[in-house]
Specification:
CATH architecture of the largest domain in chain B: 3-Layer(aba) Sandwich
Helix content of chain A: over 70%
CATH superfamily of the largest domain in chain B: P-loop containing nucleotide triphosphate hydrolases
Oligomer: heterodimer
CATH topology of the largest domain in chain B: Rossmann fold
Largest interface: A-B, 32 and 43 residues
Number of helices of chain A: 16
Number of helices of chain B: 10
Structural class of chain B: alpha/beta
Strand order of the largest sheet of chain A: 1-4
Number of domains of chain B: 2
Number of strands of chain A: 4
Helix content of chain B: 25-40%
Structural class of chain A: mainly alpha
Distance between the termini of chain A: 10 Å
Distance between the termini of chain B: 34 Å
Strand content of chain B: 15-25%
Number of domains of chain A: 1
Chain lengths: 329, 250
């Protein structure tokens, strides 16, 4: 259930309600504020940067999964396309950072337009399978295309050391400065996603998630709406990928591998699908878990998996979704 | 006579493999009339409903709406042309508010693909939603989650949604299906109110209810057109009595 409706129908006290209302109203500002203090409270900024990037990735994915109701298992292709588009622009074409990010988003748009057009004709589990298969196709193409992508050893040389923003010089080798520089991109993207969700189109995709028959009978072309949702989702996931390429200075071929698609599904479910804050909460939990568990065992994925199973079992709405349900439901 | 024809089915045949669901049916619906399509189970009512609402394309024949051939158009284009429908099984957006349900339906022909404006800026669709909720008797339930409404209210909500695109033809598939006698009475009154200013086609199982409110009744049987006339004509038609009333009218 969308946060706004849930809050509007809340039965809890008026004080809690008022707070929930104003957070919902200024949700972009709320997320950005939390993100702004993140690197200060976390033990090291690298973790914060990962949360920033994967939170954006999951939020973009959530547009399609949580709001439109389509489970894509191929979003690695969109994240990867953003990363490679940006990486190639920097390492091979020598473009500046902003142009390179645009290249990354453009390539992600192109890839999502093609995958989306092929996948939206299928439904349910078949949609997942088709997106998975097409994403793996892209993985193998990039794996083989060594001259452009670096193939198995990854795309190296995606290095941007500093950025001049007018009088301001950002040193991208300084993790704190890099974090706040990335946060600018994320803030703009979140404002865009929030705006899309509050648009007439945002209402329609929720309608499609709720009842495809009624959406069609109301006069909507499901093909067009789902495709638009896929492509918009691709743009934000591509941006996340582009930032990741700049962050790491290298694009590894695993970026496109299906495990990346799985990661974003887990993050979104963990946090709460179909909620605005959920994907960031999920990304933070997932990455923190990975960070902690990998310190004391190499089998951290086993630990993560068990915790994931427990979460899905006990918090089917995700951690943030359950918080919402408990405080305002 | 032909001037006020809204929709006509011309020699419509629908086959599933060898099975003939509809055999060469020609019917024209006149503007401003409440027409009912009745028939025993398996008569082809639902098939016919699907064909005139765009859910299925006929195997042969044509569907003409306001003089335009709309055969084979995708279903959402039927809505844009001016034909709207309510389902036999309630189809709403359960987890959205009642108001939002109707509002989404109201913006379909106006701003469905607009992903940048604010919803709240579409004042007209908000107004449409509010007045339709009033019209179907849900005026004070706009903020409630649709899933929490009673069955009869959900049916009324779906009708408001079907009306949201200002259709010139409203198709209703068994609007009283699964309703209590009290809810049925409400629904019948609502249908009569709607039909006063609109063209309505009703597919129904409950013969008695249909005869009471329709201006014209079409009887289908085994996918064939059996009778077509006023409720009085149909009631006295010996063929209809044999296949339908004879088995115990509702």
């Amino acid at each position: 259930m969308p946060e706004a409706v849930q809050i509007a129908n809340s039965r809890s006290g008026s004080a809690t309600l008022a707070v929930a209302h104003s957070i919902e109203k200024h949700r972009v500002a709320a997320v950005v504020m939390v993100l702004a203090i993140l690197p200060v409270v976390l033990p090291y900024p690298a973790l914060a940067i990962n949360i920033l990037i994967f939170g954006l990735f999951a939020t973009g994915f959530n547009l399609l999964f949580g709001y439109t109701g389509l489970l894509s298992l191929g979003h690695a292709a969109l994240f990867g396309a953003g990363a490679y588009g940006c990486g190639i622009a920097i390492a091979k074409l020598g473009l500046d950072l902003f142009s390179a990010v645009l290249c990354g988003v453009a390539l992600a748009l192109l890839v999502s337009a093609v995958i989306g057009a092929l996948a939206i004709r299928t439904r349910g589990v078949y949609f997942g399978m088709v997106t998975l298969a097409l994403a793996q196709c892209l993985y193998f193409i990039f794996y083989q295309w060594v001259s452009v992508t670096g193939g198995e050893s990854g795309l190296r040389g995606v290095s941007v050391k500093r950025i001049d923003l007018g009088p301001l010089h950002v040193d991208l080798l300084n993790p704190m400065q890099k974090y706040y520089f990335f946060l600018l991109f994320v803030a703009v993207a979140l404002a865009g996603i929030s705006r899309i969700l509050r648009s007439p189109f945002g209402a329609v995709i929720e309608g499609i998630r709720e009842n495809e028959n009624r959406a069609r009978a109301s006069g909507y072309s499901l093909d067009v709406m789902k495709w638009m949702s896929f492509v918009l989702s691709g743009a934000f996931c591509g941006l996340a990928g582009a930032l990741n390429a700049i962050h790491l200075g290298i694009v590894s071929i695993e970026t496109l591998f299906y495990t990346t698609s799985g990661t974003v599904v887990m993050m979104t479910l963990l946090g709460g699908m179909g909620t605005f804050f959920g994907p960031f909460v999920g990304a933070a939990l997932f990455l923190a878990l990975e960070d902690i568990a990998s310190n004391w065992t190499t089998h951290w994925q086993l630990v993560a998996g068990l915790i994931f199973i427990a979460c899905v079992r006990f918090f089917p709405k995700g951690v943030w979704g359950s918080v919402l349900a408990r405080t305002v439901g | 006579m032909t001037a006020n024809i809204v929709l006509s089915a011309e020699n419509v045949t629908l086959r599933y493999g060898k099975f003939v669901a509809l055999g060469d049916i020609s019917v024209a619906f006149r503007s401003g009339e409440l027409t009912s399509i009745i028939g025993p189970n398996g008569a082809g009512k639902s098939s016919f409903f699907n064909v005139i609402s765009g859910a299925r394309s006929p195997t042969e024949g044509k569907i003409v709406f306001e003089g335009k051939d709309i055969t084979g158009l995708p279903q959402h284009k039927f809505v844009h042309a001016g034909i709207s429908k309510s389902f036999q099984i309630t189809n709403i957006f359960p987890q959205l508010s009642t108001h939002e349900n109707v509002r989404i339906a109201a913006q379909a022909t106006v701003a469905g693909k607009n992903f940048w404006s604010r919803r709240a800026s579409l004042v007209a669709t908000d107004e449409t939603a509010r007045s339709l909720l009033d019209e179907v008797g849900l005026g004070d339930a706009g903020h409630r989650i649709a899933a929490e409404l009673a069955h009869g209210q959900q049916r009324a909500l779906e009708i408001a949604m079907a009306l949201a695109c200002s259709p010139r033809l409203l198709l209703m598939d068994e609007p009283t299906a699964g309703m209590s006698p009290e809810e049925t009475k409400h629904m019948v009154r609502l249908i009569e109110r709607l039909a006063a200013s609109r063209t309505v086609v009703l597919v129904e199982h409950k013969m008695k209810m249909v005869l009471g409110i329709s201006k014209r009744v079409i009887v289908l049987h085994h996918g064939q057109l059996l009778a077509d006339g006023t409720p009085g004509d149909v009631r006295n038609d010996p063929e209809v009595k044999r296949v339908y009333l004879g088995q115990g009218a509702h």
